[in-house]
Amino acid sequence: MMFPQSSSRHSGSSHLPQQLKFTTSDSCDRIKDEFQLLQAQYHSLKLECDKLASEKSEMQRHYVMYYEMSYGLNIEMHKQAEIVKRLNGICAQVLPYLSQEHQQQVLGAIERAKQVTAPELNSIIRQLQVHQLSQLQALALPLTPLPVGLQAPSLQCWVPLHWSRHENSIYVGMKGIDIWTSV
């Protein structure tokens, strides 16, 4: 016969179902614990993923805002450069009609105007900020809140915070925007 006798099978099988039942119960408990652990990890990772997606969306919004500001500032700088070019042309056309003494005074004034220092620019910028702030307060409009992580200067306006010259270029720093232009 290929199978053992039924008496030997029954004597060994009396311990087997209890032992199998015990390991099955343990296995189920372990699987349940592992499932709960994985479920908690999944929930934690899902919350983190949602948080990162929210931060990504916020960063993209800030990027678009800064890009638009940069684009607007670039256009304004080109506009101001064109105005300067035209005013220089007008001065050059009018200069020959002045007396020699006045020509020297005008040329000196033009050269002094080209030598703007950083403290002078900062003073002009502060005056613009005060003027813009007073206009906003007169209109009773709330100031635009700053993006997360940026601190407000003493006066909150979207104008350049500082300028500096470096190798025939002007640096304009604006709350996260750096622009260089040749002069």
Automatic annotation (TrEMBL):
Pfam families: TLE_N
Domain of life assignment: Eukaryota
Molecular-function GO term, any one: transcription corepressor activity
Principal place of residence: nucleus
Subcellular location: Nucleus
Keywords assigned: Coiled coil, Nucleus
Coiled-coil intervals, chain numbering: 28-55
Database matches in InterPro entries: Groucho/TLE_N, Groucho_enhance
Any one GO BP annotation for this protein: negative regulation of canonical Wnt signaling pathway
Any one of the GO CC terms: transcription regulator complex
Domain spans labelled Groucho/TLE N-terminal Q-rich: 20-132
PANTHER family: TRANSDUCIN-LIKE ENHANCER PROTEIN (PTHR10814), TRANSDUCIN-LIKE ENHANCER PROTEIN 2 (PTHR10814:SF4)
Family, as annotated: Belongs to the WD repeat Groucho/TLE family.
Name of the featured protein: TLE family member 5, transcriptional modulator
Organism for this UniProt entry: Leptobrachium leishanense (Leishan spiny toad)
